[in-house]
């Protein structure tokens, strides 16, 4: 238990401090830590956690840290996941605030950020492709994606799209082998398992 809690702290510290480009840029790093390195979740469970996180208010990085931490090690895991996400980056920001202020308009810094942006985009795209392999099991889910893309094009708020897709999914997939009830059942069993290991 103690080892898992420490691993959670280190995993989310690495993800948060190396996630240049804001919250979404940390998602590929989180996936690497959570799925590939520590095996706390598989790709489908990670995608489900990301979907749940996107329906809740607040920054995605902290929500994912709490959800994954709780599943891996109960409440201590949730707390350490949050601490690992927030505290180290806060300390870095405080310690480097003067330098950041001085070099905000530095040509060298702008050049470095220009170089890192394509990498961030590729990392996010890689995560999207990895999750997308299991996100489209039938034509209906492809249709949902097309409609979602169209709504985003017309500047519909993402939260409304997510909530709408959840409502649609509840009614559309009840009898197609990927019902919301079964997904909730898998999630509930995961949380219960986490509780038993606390």
The number of distinct helices, counting runs of at least 4 residues, comes to 9
Globally, the shape reads globular
| Overall radius of gyration | 19 Å
Outline the biggest β-sheet: none
Count of DSSP E strands? 0
Q: Strand pairing plus helix content: what structural class?
A: mainly alpha
Distance between the termini: 7 Å
Describe the structure using short key phrases.
198 residues; 9 helices; 83% helix; globular
Write up this protein.
- It is built from nine helices and no strands.
- By secondary structure, the protein is mainly alpha-helical.
- The chain has a domain of 129 residues.
- α1 crosses α4, α3 crosses α6 and α4 packs across α9.
- The model has no long low-confidence stretch (mean pLDDT 82).
What does this entry show, briefly?
The protein is mainly alpha-helical. The protein has helices spanning 2-18, 23-37, 43-55, 60-95, 97-103, 107-135, 139-153, 158-172, 180-196. Helices cover 83% and strands 0% of the residues.
């Amino acid at each position: 238990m103690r080892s898992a809690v420490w691993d959670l702290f280190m995993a989310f510290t690495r993800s948060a401090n190396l996630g240049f480009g804001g919250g979404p840029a940390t998602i590929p790093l989180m996936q690497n830590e959570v799925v590939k390195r520590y095996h706390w979740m598989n790709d489908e469970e990670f995608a489900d956690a990301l979907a749940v996180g996107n329906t809740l208010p607040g920054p995605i990085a902290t929500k994912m840290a709490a959800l994954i931490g709780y599943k891996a090690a109960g409440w201590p895991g949730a707390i350490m996941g949050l601490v690992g996400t927030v505290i180290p980056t806060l300390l870095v920001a405080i310690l480097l605030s003067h330098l950041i202020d001085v070099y905000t308009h530095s040509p060298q810094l702008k050049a470095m950020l220009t170089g890192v942006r394509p990498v961030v985009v590729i990392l996010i795209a890689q995560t999207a492709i990895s999750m997308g392999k299991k996100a489209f099991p039938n034509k209906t889910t492809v249709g949902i994606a097309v409609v979602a893309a169209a709504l985003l094009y017309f500047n519909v708020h993402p939260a409304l799209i997510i909530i709408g897709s959840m409502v649609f999914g509840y009614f559309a997939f009840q009898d197609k082998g990927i019902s919301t009830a079964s997904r909730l059942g898998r999630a509930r069993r995961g949380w219960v398992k986490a509780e038993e290991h606390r």
